Structure formats: C-alpha cells, structure tokens
Amino acid sequence: MTQELTSPSPAPRMPGPGRGPAWWRDAVIYQIYVRSFADSDGDGIGDLRGARARLPYLKDLGVDAVWLTPFYASPQADGGYDVADYRAVDPLFGNLQDADDLIRTAHDLGLRVIVDVVPNHTSDRHPWFRDPELARQRYVFRPGRGEHGELPPNDWESVFGGPAWTRTERGDWYLHLFAPEQPDLDWDNPEVHAEFEAILRFWLDLGVDGFRVDVAHGMVKAPGLPDIGHGQQAKLIGNQVLPFFDQDGVHTIHRAWRRLLDGYGEDHGRQVIGVAEAWAPTPERLALYVRPDELHQAFNFQFLNTPWRADALRRVIDASLAATTSVGAPTTWVLSNHDVVRHTTRLGGGLARARAATLLMLALPGSAYLYQGEELGLPEVTDLPDEARQDPAFFRGHASGTSGQDGFRDGCRVPLPWSGEAPPYGFGSGGSWLPQPTDWRALTVAAQTGDPSSTLELYRTALSLRRELPGLGDGEMSWQPAPDGVLAIARPGVLCTVNTLGHEIDIPLPGSPLLSSAPVAIDGTTAALPADSCTWWATR
Predict the structure, then answer these.
(1) pTM for the full predicted model
(2) Residue ranges of the Glycosyl hydrolase family 13 catalytic domain (predicted)?
(3) Among 26, 124, 184, 214, which one carries the catalytic annotation?
(4) What's the Rg (C-alpha) of the chain?
(5) Sheet harboring 521-523: ordered strands across?
(6) I need a surface site. Which of 283, 294, 326, 501 has the fewest CB within 10 A?
(7) What is the pLDDT of residue 161?
(8) 457 has catalytic annotation
C-alpha cells in the first residue's frame, strides 16, 4: 500500500538556523491535530491540504516548528495512532504528495516539521499482524493461564480500560496496552528494529526535521511479564515504574535512533531531532530519555500536571531544570495537548489563569509546546453528546467498568474556529467531525485578530518578544524574593512575576512593563499585580 510521490521534486529547502545551531533548545513548537485543524475538501475532517493552507497563520503567530499528529494509513480506531502503513498517507488526510507539499511550504516559511512515529504498537490491520506466522514473531503473544489457557497471561490492564490481552482463534493471547486494534510489537525481534529505522529514513528523505516518539517509554516490557497485583493501573502511569512502561531497555532503542538521526543530519547538512513522549515517575527518570546519546527532548508532563499554586510550580520548575541540566539537555514545557483537558478549563480560574500560565511557560528556559487552539483561549468542550464521541477509551472504559483513561479526550479535539458567526466557523465547507459550540464566534481567529485584549494577540506579542529578547528562551534563570503566592523569575534583562492568588497583590515596581496577561496598575514605585496574572518586566 506504500504510496509514491506523483511528481519528482528537488530536495527540500531548509529554514535558517534560527536563534542558534541547536534550534530545538528554545524552539516554540505548535501541535497540529490534523483532523481538527483545517478541512480542505468539505468532508468535515481536517487534512494535510487544509493544514498547508493555514501555515502562514502559524508563521505570523511566531512559532518555530509544527508537530503533526499521525496522518498515516489507518483504520482510525484511535485517531490514527493505530497505523496500518507507516509509508502511506490515509486518504482521509490526502496523499504522499500532499505531505511533501506541506513540508516544502513549511520550509519556505521558515518552519520546521516534526511528525509522529508510533513504535509501541501498530494497527491490527498492519500486514505483519494479518499474517498469523509473522504476527507471532513480531508481536507479543503468550499462552493463557488456567487449565485450558482461558485466562489472560497476566493481570495487566489496558490504558483504555479492560484487560490488556485479547485471545485469538488459535487460543493464544496478544498484548495491547491500548485498544485491541493496537497490538504491541515485540522489540526483542531485530526485524522490528530494522523496519522502524527504515521508516525514519523514509520520512527524513521526504524532508521532515524530527519525530515525536509516541509511547517512547513502552516498547520494552519486563522479563517474564510479571503481574502488577492490583487494578486501576492506568492511575499508576507516570507515578511509578511499571513492568510495561519505563523499563531501562527502551534506552537502547533510543540510543540507536539518536545515532541514526545524528548520522543522517551530518550526511545531509541538517539538524534532525527525536522527542520522547515518555511518562516517567520522576524528573530524574525522565531525564534519562534526553541524555547526550539519546533523544533531544522529552515532554515534561510533571509541569503539565502541576496545580496552580506558587509553591507547587516552583518545586516542579526547579526539579525539571535540575534533572535536564544534569544531562545537558533543554527542558520542555507544555500546558495542553490532544490527550488532556485544555488548560483554560483544567487549571480552574478560567481564561485569566490560562493566560497567566502561558506567559509563565514562555518565560522559562528551554523549549515550549503549544496545542492548537490554546492561542484562542479555547476551553474544553465538556458537553459533547455520547453519540458524537469517538475516543476509544470512552467506549472501552464504560463497557468494561474498569478505570482506564477517562475517555473524554474528544473535548480537547473539537475542530478550530477560524471565522464566521456560527459552526463550522470556517473550519471547512462540510461541517466538522465533532460538533463545535454555538458560542465560539467571539473566539475565532478572525474575531480576535487585531484586538489588543484578545488571547490571540497576547500569544503573538509574547512569541515576538521571546524571539527578540536574548534573555528569553534557553539560558539561565534565578528566583527573586516575592510575597507568598507570587513567583518572581529573573532572566537576563527580564523579570517575570506571577500572582497565583485569587486577589490583587502589591509589589515594588520591578521595571518597565513589557507584557501582562491582565492590566497592571502602577502607582509611583508600586505595581498592583492582578489576581491570576503574569507580567514580564524589562529590568535594564
């Protein structure tokens, strides 16, 4: 099924080096959830042509790179994270030529492109799994327990709820840490290693600048596949080492991939990167994924999960920076993505708190990830009807009665509002695959553009300042004295103050205001920080 380009084209033009040779160390990377970004053909589903047409918007927003969620050939049992062919584009999203065109257009605009790679599992429609003999060589199969093998091989639970094992017609069982349509690959087989290295080279040859490695902590399982001993295992992810996640053996794979990426980059005069989506129980465990001979970045879910309290935020910032600094890697910061409740809703406090959190994130040393629509202040859609939902965790968790993921990820995946007074708000001509709220007209890109008080213009200004001011991005930071409930972060030439309290608080005037998430009153030598606000000050 692997596709070919419909027309030959020259080697892709690469963007300039940006703010330094290691561009990823302070890059702002924008996540495009492809099916919800922009629809070019009126079928209600976002696609590559739609995304390509909107790239100038992202250039104007001020980001450095885009990360595209999977657009590969897939039955779409889990939004494309069930891949049937890693070298083909699913017809829902276009074809390989559309992918090539998008990459070239992004490079022409000075944007780099990161794509997802899904190595823990494939679709059950992948050619390997459809061949009974190949499947038992390249996936995790085990005999069952019980007198007749009628019980699963162990007590592992799927992240989506229910058992992590499904029995076949032959009587044996295969492992799927996610949906049954997503069988886990057996990374003890060297053919699996060889295939994924070939997949990486295929997309590097097409011009991509890096890979976000899905479930980067999951490819290796503990020897013997031991029982965990109790239920509700999904709640343990990211809190402790589990026999199916964050095993030390995954680092051998990441070292091999780093050698491939560095070698390819040296041979082609490019800088290409790997980004780990890894849930680890501590910042120190997470830092193992970004040692000098492993991947370049890892998502910082510890920060994402931190409550809106000054003491908690300071602890996780300190721990994150200490862990990554110990291995010479940049820290990454993220507040929202396609798997979690949008931070406008999750943090409580509404839009004011979300705006403040964003300015805090963009003031921290390292790289930042933005999720599509957060620049519009979009809230989580919490009232989707059950019949509209498509998250497999919703159906599997409810059916099994077990506590996997909550199954409400669709609420952060509702298609973007671009313009107009009513749905689909310019998303496309044929509606949207998930219903959009009828009160989003004030949140569209068109409605917010040019309004200095809008969240979109706050993001544009913040990203412009971050690019212009040498003290922001990668580099040093220090804490300055501040009242309880307030954070004061010093960067070279810039001070960032964050009031996490629910009321205004006065501080000595730190400098000249550069940008604030809410209006700041200044009276002589005193500044009144609004509740749930963040302000950047020029200090020299």
Answers:
(1) 0.94
(2) 31-409
(3) 214
(4) 23
(5) 505-508, 526-529, 521-523
(6) 326
(7) 87
(8) no
